[in-house]
Specification:
The protein has 288 residues and is of the alpha/beta class. It contains 10 helices and 13 strands.
């Protein structure tokens, strides 16, 4: 038996689901497993996406892949045929679809693995490769807005009639009026996300955010705010308060999740009831 072992991640692992489908189509006996079931498998594929996840319970000969490993890489044998295999959603009891229309990014942010992992922006697949009428679909593209045919992809998503989660966010520096008109026709699954990671990028990110905010249903735009990577607490506070003033919901991403200040600041912002009623200095003083 071949085992598919997902160490971390709150969503089903797309690479493992594709490998599982490919192997099953070849007649192999394959199933999703936990740590203790590794002993009964002839082969184990183990995926880890976060570096802080404990890896001590993975057997030595497991085929490993994912950005969580020190020498991270894609899962072996994920060649073109496997990459374009319809995922085995049933192995994870996953009732929604997930996948990529594009891969890559035009940015080279030093804190992001996408440029090294995926390379330049390019077309990756048609929606029909990984969606088969599910009511909900989760788009995993790192920077859909960077593709020259971004509006065309939005039209494809709109035509599906499915509810769409733009899970990795949209690059507000590349938002156009045409893009906004097209996204209005897409059914949304949750908030649309964008990001303001660099404090000095204010004049480049806010115009696009405002266009998105005005095109989307009220209170449906969230901006990721990276803290702890070449930023000061004053810059962190300025960004979240500026976004609040603009009617855009901030969501803080701590670069170092072990840092006390970053953990506290993220908790203050991301718990909306607290963020709306308690000032940072009062919250920080209470924590101290």
């Amino acid at each position: 038996m071949i085992g598919l072992y997902q160490l971390d991640g709150k969503w089903p692992n797309l690479a493992l689901m594709k490998i599982g489908a490919y192997l099953r189509n070849r007649g192999e006996q394959v199933q999703r497993i936990g740590a203790l079931e590794q002993t009964i498998c002839e082969t184990v594929y183990a995926s880890k996406i976060f570096q802080f996840t404990d890896r001590s319970y993975v057997r030595e000969d497991a085929i490993r892949g994912g950005t969580g490993w020190p020498d991270w890489k894609g899962l072996p044998n994920l060649d073109d045929e496997i990459e374009h295999t319809y995922p085995a959603y049933d192995m994870w009891n996953c009732t929604w679809a997930m996948g990529f229309l594009t891969r890559g990014c035009v940015r080279h942010c030093p804190f992001c693995v996408v440029p090294d992992k995926e390379g330049r922006i390019r077309h990756h697949s048609h929606l029909s490769e990984w969606w088969n009428g599910q009511k909900y679909l989760r788009l995993l593209d790192a920077n859909l807005t960077a593709h020259p045919d971004a509006v065309g992809y939005l039209e494809e998503l709109s035509a599906s009639g499915a509810y769409v989660d733009f899970s990795q966010g949209l690059d507000s520096r590349l938002i156009t009026p045409e893009f906004c008109e097209a996204i209005k026709k897409v059914k949304l699954w949750g908030d649309v996300h964008t990001a303001w990671d660099l404090p000095e990028a204010e004049d480049r990110v806010l115009p696009g955010m405002r266009m998105l905010r005005d095109a989307l249903p009220k209170d449906s735009l969230t901006a990721y705010v990276l803290i702890g990577y070449n930023t000061t607490p004053e810059q962190d506070l300025y960004r979240v308060m500026k976004l609040k003033e603009e009617g855009i919901k901030p969501f803080v991403m701590a670069y170092d999740k072990t840092n006390r200040y970053q953990k506290d600041f993220a908790r203050w912002v991301n718990r909306k009831a607290i963020f709306e009623t308690v000032k940072w200095e009062d919250y920080r003083g209470r924590k101290r």
